[in-house]
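Newbie here. two chains, one complex. Structure please?
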Amino acid sequence: MTPDFDVLFSHNRFKGEAFLDELRGNKPLFILTIATTETGKIAGISAAGKYPEFTDYTPPADAELLQLGKCKCINGVPVTPDGIPTPALIAMSALRLADIPVLVCSGGSKVKPQLPFLDLGGNPGRDIRTGSAVDNVKEVFDRAVIAGENLAKVTDYLVIGESIPGGTTTALGVLSALGVKARGKVSSSMPENPHDLKDAAVSAGLAAAGESFGSLRADPVRAVTCVGDPMMPAFAGLVVGAAGQIPVLMAGGTQMTAVLAVVNALNPDVLCNVAIGTTRWVVNDSSSDIRGIVEQIADVPVLAADLDFSSSKFEGLKAYERGIVKEGVGAGGASIAAIGSTEGAINKEMLLTEIERNYALLMGLK
Amino acid sequence: MTPDFDVLFSHNRFKGEAFLDELRGNKPLFILTIATTETGKIAGISAAGKYPEFTDYTPPADAELLQLGKCKCINGVPVTPDGIPTPALIAMSALRLADIPVLVCSGGSKVKPQLPFLDLGGNPGRDIRTGSAVDNVKEVFDRAVIAGENLAKVTDYLVIGESIPGGTTTALGVLSALGVKARGKVSSSMPENPHDLKDAAVSAGLAAAGESFGSLRADPVRAVTCVGDPMMPAFAGLVVGAAGQIPVLMAGGTQMTAVLAVVNALNPDVLCNVAIGTTRWVVNDSSSDIRGIVEQIADVPVLAADLDFSSSKFEGLKAYERGIVKEGVGAGGASIAAIGSTEGAINKEMLLTEIERNYALLMGLK
C-alpha cells in the first residue's frame, strides 16, 4: 500500500499499486522518443506549434529542454497558440528534482536535436491520409528491441515518453486498424478536441491503404506503416526489449494505448511488466477516455500523477486545469518516477514549486 | 589484492589494483565508439581492411559483431589481409560471457551500423595530411559529455572501446601536437609497425595546419581538429562526462594515450577515476611503448588482460601471439571487465574457449 504518494490509480488499482511498489527507491532511466510527421501539420489537428511548419521543431526542442534545461534549435520553448508552455517543462522539473538521467531516442525526426540521441534508422513520417505513413517499421522496431534489451541490463526500470505532434491522430489510426474502438476517445492538447478532423484523416488513410477498421488486427507492423507514426516502432521496440527484464512505465496519454496495442499484438508476454503513467488531466478528461481504450487491449494498470496547478501563481500553468496541453514529453510518468524513486519524498507541492521556478526562468518572469 | 585474476598490472600497480577492486562484482556498460577517416586509407597504414575502401565498413561491422553476434553491413567478419579476424571477436565473447550490455556510439562514420547507435553530430574524418581532419570537435565533445553524465547515473562503471582504422596514426598526430613524445611508440595492428609512414603523415598534417610538435599543448580541441580523428572527441567527452561520478576503463592500446592526453588537457580532475585497459599483446609489444607515452601525460594505471592464444587450436587465433592485431574494439578492456565483474569467475581459459567457439561459428569451422 502506498497511500501517501501523489499518484492516482485510474485503472486496475491492484496491479497499479504493485507496479508503483516496484519503483520505490529504485533508479530509472528516462527515454524520450521523438519523431516528426506531416500528419502533425494537418490544419487544426495539433496544438504543438503555432504554425504547422513549427511542428518539425517541437520534438527536438522538447528533447533539448528536457536534457539540457533549455532549447537550442529554437529560441525560448515550444508553446501552444495561446502561449501555454510545453509539458517538457513538467517532465524536466520532475527528472531534475529526482536526478533521473535522460536518453533521447529518435524514431525519425526531420530536425535533429542538438544533443546525443539514439538513432534507430527511421525517417520522418508522412501524412497518414496517404495510407503510407512510416518507413522501415520492422527495422526500427528490431533496433529498438536491441536498445531496450541492453539498457534494461543497466537500469532498475525504464520510463519512456514521447514528443510527436499529431500523435493522437496517428494513435487513432493504428488503434482503428487494429480493431480497437477509439473514435471520440483519444485525447487532445487543445481544450476543444477535434475528433471529427482526426476521424476524417484516419478514414482517408485507411481507405488510401485499402484497409478498414480492424483489417490489420494481425499485422501491427503494417498498421503502423499505413496510418501510424515513427515514434511507435521505436517506443514499442524499447518496451518489448526491456520489459522482459525490468518494469517499464509508458509515460503518456492516449497515444500510449496505440503503442500498447502494437506491443500486445507482437509480444503480449511482456505486458505483465508494463504500466501506463499519465497525468490527472488525462484521466479526468471528459473529451477522451483512456480507460475505455486500454480495457479493450490488455489488463495493464493506468497510473496518474496527481498534479494540480489550480493554485499556481502563473496563468500559463493554471491553464493546464482548463484542459490545455494535459500531457506530453512523459510529463505524467516522469512525475510518477520522481515520486516513486524518492519513496514519496517528492510530492505534488514540490513538483509545482520546481515547475514554477523553471517556468519563470524560461519565460523570463519573476 | 587480487592475485588470482587474469589481469596484469603493467603500469602503476598500486592504483591499478585499487581500480580493479572497484570493478569487482559491479555491473558495467560497454560503449563502443566508432568513426571512419580518410587517414585509415593511406596505403600501408592500417590492417583493418584488405582494401582501403573497406576501412569504411570495419567500424560498423565491428559494432554489429559486438552487439548482434554477427555483421550485417558486410558478409563474414572484418579480417586482416592475412585473414586474421577482428578483435571484436574477443570483445564480443567476453561481454557475452559476463552478460555485459553494449551501446554503440558514433563519432562520425561514413557507413552507418545497422543497429541502434548514439549519434553525436559528428562527421567522418578527413586525411590528417590536409591539416584539417575533424569537424565539430567541440560540439561532439560537449554532446558526449552529456551522454557520459547521464549514463553514469545508471551504470556502476563504464568500459569504453573504439573501432577506427588508422587510429594509431591519428593518435600519434594528436600526441605530437600536444607535445607528447610518441614517435616510434604507438602500436600497430600489423606485425611490422610502419612507424615511418605514420611519422610522415603526422609531419605533413602538422605542417599543413601551420603547427608543430607541442604547439597545440594548450588547445586540444584544435589538435584533434587538425590531426586527430572523430572517435577522439566522442571518447574523451564520454570519459569527462562519466568519470566525475563512476570509474571509467578506457579500453584500447596506444590510441588511448591520445584520448588520455585530450582529457588531461581539458579536465585532468576526472583522471583519478580512469584506467587504461588493454591486452598482454600491447603491453609486451617491442615495437611500441604504451607505458612510455602514458607516463608523460598522467599518473593513470595500465591494466592488461592476460590473454594467451598460444595453445589455441586455430591458427587464426594463434597469430595474435605473433603480434598481429593485438587489440581493438576494446578487446582487452572487455576481457578485464568480464573478469572483474564476475570476481574472477571468468578467467583466461574460459575466455579462450568462448572465443574459439565464436571463431569457429563465424568462420564456418568445426
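Moderator note: The longest helix of chain A spans residues 137-152. The two ends of chain A are 40 Å apart (CA to CA). Thread marked as resolved.
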